[in-house]
C-alpha cells in the first residue's frame, strides 16, 4: 500500500518538475529584472522579545523577532548587539557589522531574528516551589504527590532599562492539567477553565512589584512552562465623576468646621466654669478655715461664758447672804468685777462682730460662685448622643463627671443653704445680747459708784440685788443659747468639710476638663484645617492616582538599541522551562521562528 502511494507521488513529481523549472526560470528572470536597487524605507517597526527561563525564573536564552512594514523596497539598516541574525522572510543574506544590521526588503512585511546574549530582562522573576510546606527544587518535584505551593515574585531589574518596568503590564499564566491538580487556590489571581485544564492568571501593574501564591493538591507532578507576557499598559483611565462625592466631602468639611466652632465655644464655656470653680474653691477654703477656727474657739467662748455665769451667780448669792455685812471696800471690789465682766463681754462682742463680717464675705463669695453653676438638666439620652459623636471619649467622660460633680455640689449647697443663712442672724442675736448685757453691767457699775456716796445703803443694796438677780437669770438664758450656737457651729464645720471636698473635686475636675477641652479644640482645629480644602485635595489625589496608571501617552522605544527608529511596539514573551518527564519533552518552535519553506522542501515533506 505504501509502495503504491510512493509511486503515485513520484509520478506527480515527474509531471510537475518541467513546469516548475519553467516557472522557476521565469521567476528568476523576473526577480533579476525587478530586484530593488537603492535605499528602501519602512513606516514602522515591531519587536517581539522571546526569553526562556529555567524553572526557578533564572534567565537562559533570548532572541528578538524584528518586523518591518515596508514602504519602499530596498536596502535598509537596523541596529542591535546580536550574537547572530537570521532572515525569516526569504533566502537573502543579512549583513551584520558590529551593531549594524543591513538587509534588503522586497515584500510588504519583512522579518528577521536576532539572538542576544547577556541582555537582562527589565524584570527580576523568582519562582519557588514548596511541597507539603518544605522548599523543593523543581527537578526533585517531578512525579511527586502532595500539597503544592508555587510562589512567584517579580520586581524591577536594577541592571536593565527601567522604561519597560515603569510602563509595562505583566500577565503571568499557569496552565494546570485537571488530572494532576485539584483544589486549586489563589488570592490575587483568577482561575478559569481552558478545555480540560485550569488556567490561573496573575497581573502586575506598571511600577509595581508582584507577589503571588498558588496552592493545589498535586498527583504525579508535572508542569507546563509558566507563560509571562509583558505589554504596554495601554488602558486609558477617565477621571471619575466626582461631583456628588465632592459635594458630600464639602458637606463633611463644613460640618467639621461647625464642630470645631462648637468645640471652641465649649472650651470657652468650660474655661469660664473652671474659673468659677477655682474662685469657689478659694472662697470655700477661706470659709472652711474660718468656720474651723470658730469651732475651735467655741470651747474658749464657752469657758469664758461659764466664768461670767459663775461669777454672776456667786455675786448674786453673796449679795443675798452677806449684804448686811458688806462694807464700802467690798462694794468697790464688786464695782471692779462688774467692770471686768463688761470688758470681757465687749471683747467677745467685738470678736463675734469681726467674725460675722468675715463670714458674710465668704458666704457671699460661695453663694455667688455656686449660683453661677448652670442648672441645665442634661438627660442620659443627651449624654449618650454625645458619646456616639466623633468627639474624644476621654474628654466627654471628664465633661460628664464635671457636670455631675457640679450638680451634686449645687444640690448639696441647696440642702445646707438654710444653715448658712441662719449663721448671720444667730451671730447678730448673740452680739445684740452681749451688747445688752454689757450695757447693763456698765450701768450697774456706774450706778453702784454713784450710790456709794449716798447714805441710804439699804435702798442701794435692794436695787443691786434685784439687778444682779435679773442679770444672772438673763445670762443663764444667754449661756444656754451660746451652747446651742457652738453646737451648731461644730455641726456646720463638720458638714462643711464634706461640702468643701465636693467643691475641691469640682475644681480639680473642671481643671482637667479644661485641659482636655483645649486638647480637643487643638485636634478639631487641626481637623478643620486639614479638611478645609478636602474636596480639592480629593480631586487632586484621584487625578494623580489615575495618571499613575494611565500609560496611554507612552512612546515605545527599542529594547535592542536606542538608534532604532519608528518603533511602533515592543512586546515580551517569556516562558519558564517545563517540568515534565523526558518522553513528554518536546521542542516547541513558534511559528515566527520557522523559515518559509520553498517548493522542494514542501515536496520532500510528502516523503518524510
UniProtKB/TrEMBL annotation:
<feature type="signal peptide">
    <location>
        <begin position="1"/>
        <end position="24"/>
    </location>
</feature>
<protein>
    <submittedName>
        <fullName>YhgE/Pip domain-containing protein</fullName>
    </submittedName>
</protein>
<dbReference type="InterPro" id="IPR023908">
    <property type="entry name" value="xxxLxxG_rpt"/>
</dbReference>
<keyword id="KW-0732">Signal</keyword>
